[in-house]
Amino acid sequence: MITEFLIGFVLQAISMLGYAGVFLLMLMESTVLPVPSELVMPFAGYLVSNGTFGLMEVIIASLAGSIVGSLISYYVGKSFGRATIVKFGRFFFLNEHHLGIAHKWFEKYGDKTILACRFVPAVRHVISLVAGTAEMNLKKFVLYTAIGAFFWNSVLLVAGIMLQKNWVEITKYAEWLDIAIIIGAVVFTAFLVIRHLKSRR
């Protein structure tokens, strides 16, 4: 029922607003609003496949939306602080458990958590708030957010292009897609760490 409502909402928003719809939906997805990118980007990919949308235009609109939405969350976190976010978060679709996980990861792994968490279900919606409460360097925040959002959005976009009219099928495999991307991100990060360590010898 909820999934059907969200599918209808995404379809209507993009059909009515075009690229602006993609921008707004991805902005909402990057805050704490329950708009899944797993619906937005595959549908946009389908529209690219049939010639309705241009590939670069969708990439730019989605990336801009992700960055702006993340910045909104960042400044909310920075302005109100962790205690207030945890106290009132439940009224704004925030899960205290997910907030706790994001805080622990950020404290343990630092700034690069922003990049990694773009690929982690549920946590990616709150990590920008955590970065704000930690007063992370803004330039680094935008950089890591942009890199992570670009790869995540592109994977979903390509999936929609390949599936075409069957784009909605991706919702059935979203969890496995998340796992595959997480594994890929871990492997890539490990490669960079190993290469860095070797270069220091």
Brief characterization of the structure:
By secondary structure, this protein is mostly helical.
Q: What is the averaged pLDDT score?
A: 79
Order of helices and strands: HHHHHHHHH
Query: How helical, in percent, are the residues?
Result: over 70%
Q: Nearest-angstrom radius of gyration?
A: 17 Å
Q: Based on Cα principal axes, name the global outline.
A: globular
Number of helices: 9
Strand content: under 5%
Number of domains: 1
Regions with little confidence, pLDDT below 50 for 5+ residues: none
SS content category? mainly alpha
Gap between N and C termini: 57 Å
Main beta-sheet annotation:
none
Quantity of strands, as a count: 0
What does this protein structure show overall?
This protein has one domain (2-199). The protein has 201 residues and is mostly helical. The longest helix has 34 residues, at 55-88. α2 (19-29) packs parallel to α4 (55-88) and α4 crosses α8. The chain is built from 9 helices and no strands.
Break the fold down into its secondary structure elements and pairings.
Blueprint: H1 2-17, H2 19-29, H3 37-49, H4 55-88, H5 96-109, H6 113-117, H7 127-133, H8 138-163, H9 174-199
Helix pairs in contact: 1-2, 1-3, 2-3, 2-4, 3-8, 4-7, 4-8
